[in-house]
Amino acid sequence: MTRSRLETVAARLLQSCRCALEAGLNLLLPYPCLACETLAQASDRRLGLCPDCRLGLRLTARPGCRGCGRPTARFARPDPLCGSCRASPPPYDRLVAAFEYRPPLSTVVLGLKTSRLEYLADDLAAALLARDHDRLAQCDVVTPIPLAPLRLFRRGFNQAESLTRVLSEQLDRDWRRLLSRRPRPKQALQSRARRIELQRGAFRCRQALQGERVLLVDDVVTTGSTVRAATECLLAAGAKSVVVAAAARTPSWDE
Ligand SMILES: [Zn+2]
Ligand SMILES: [Zn+2]
């Protein structure tokens, strides 16, 4: 085992102990709401938010565009596409996102991502299943969007993978790490068009697929370029179809 691998394993073990201790304490003690820090009852800590902050959560529109989740006409066909998704159709069958990515939900995602509050993955997965259980259940295998190796090493934790594990358990399907990342330049300063171009070929499929229907999981979908590129990679490797599940999507995809 290489030294970096050993360090990762040690960090994960330490993290598991911390999480178990935290989970124990959380059952007994009032907890500070992730968004406003008011102390809330331990028995009612869904999504780490107090009841008042939970009222501020925004579910995604329904019916929504199957490509990006934007609101569509009330009497639209069952699987509508908005104008911009019609101009550039998504390679996946549908995006299922539970929430709009704005406060207080953004603090929940941050709590999972940076503070590794694993119980939030349970609550976010439950919200996704409540949103469209039947659609999510139409899969043979569940897989996360991977982090770049260096980022995974630094963080020691992939939040999309914790969501994947919970969904796989709840849906009674296997989960596998089907994708890996190729190294690529930093995205922050690139235009949207350039980011989309760079995403093409950003993924590698680790194994050939045999016509499986894949549920591809990410924490937040922003421009959609990442899930598009990952889907194209899975389809090229032999997947029959892909549905994307995300805890949240940004309200506008044009930023
Ligand atoms: Zn609060
Ligand atoms: Zn759309």
Overall number of domains: 1
Adjacency order of strands in the biggest sheet: 3-9-8-4-5
- The CATH topology is what? Rossmann fold
Quickly give the CATH architecture: 3-Layer(aba) Sandwich
Which CATH class applies here? Alpha Beta
Could you name the ranges where pLDDT drops below 50 across 5 or more consecutive residues?
none
As a whole number of angstroms, the C-alpha radius of gyration is: 18 Å
Number of β-strand runs = 9
How would you summarize this macromolecular structure in one to three sentences?
This protein is α/β, with parallel strands linked by helices and 255 residues long. The chain contains nine helices and nine strands. The longest helix is centred in the first third of the chain and has 26 residues, at 3-28.
Can you give a write-up of this model?
The protein has one domain: 3-Layer(aba) Sandwich (Rossmann fold), CATH 3.40.50. It has 255 residues and is of the alpha/beta class. Helix 5 packs across helix 7. 40% of the residues lie in helices and 16% in strands. The protein has nine helices and nine strands. It is globular, with a radius of gyration of 18 Å. The strands form three sheets. Strands 3-9-8-4-5 form a five-stranded parallel sheet, with helices on both faces. One zinc ion (ZN) binds next to helix 2.
